[in-house]
Amino acid sequence: MVDRIEQTYIRRFGSMRQAYALIGYKEFRNMPAVRETKLRTRKTLRAVFRQILRTFKGQVEAIQERGGNQQALRFHDGVKVSVSICRCVDYGFGLKWVIPVNRFERNYPTLICRCTPDNKSLKDVYLLRRIDSSCKTVFLTKENDPWLKKGKRIRDLSLLRKMLDRMNLVSPNLLVSAELPH
User: What is the pLDDT of residues 75-90, one digit of tens each?
Assistant: First the structure.
């Protein structure tokens, strides 16, 4: 079916790219900037993980759940925390942050780490009970988004475990069933 539709576009317009151009779609060709942003995001993720693993040495480990590149932490009592590095974008109507959603981690407590506008460092970090969005892959938030008020801002990552406890995020449904080695 898709091949027939694509062939119709090619026959009428010359190519899918030309069909999009006719309706005013401008192809994004700044791939070096996209790669650079992805590298910055990965670097920031590694820095956040290093800091948490160093702070909670022997109490937490980095894990990767199913469904993508997003990573999570698992404390040795089984509590899992998703970590989302949220890059900053400007589509012409103010700064927004891209919140990635991993369906396998959406019910975990989540660290929302929003980047600065140049995506070189962190602007702020929030701890939320879970990603309660109907979006399947990503959604956008704005500067003072009410969605962030569902969580607590963390100014010091060494307070992560205390905040998990204080927000009652240490519960049986967040624990893994297998005993972890100490």
Answer: 999 999 999 999 999 8
CATH number at residue 167: 3.40.1350
What is the per-residue pLDDT across 95-146, written as a single tens digit (0 to 9) for each? 999 998 888 888 899 999 999 999 999 999 999 998 877 777 888 999 999 9
Q: Which residues contact 66 (CB under 8 A, 6 or more apart)?
A: 104
The count of domains in the chain is: 1
Do the domain assignments include residue 23? no
- How many angstroms separate the CA atoms of 155 and 109, rounded? 17
Sheet holding 80-86, edge to edge: 60-63, 71-75, 80-86, 110-115, 122-128, 152-153
* pTM, 2 dp: 0.74
The two tokens of residue 116 are 């600065």
Strands 80-86 and 110-115, by their bridges, are: parallel
Pairing type for strands 71-75 and 60-63 reads: antiparallel
**Domain that includes residue 97, residue range:** 31-174
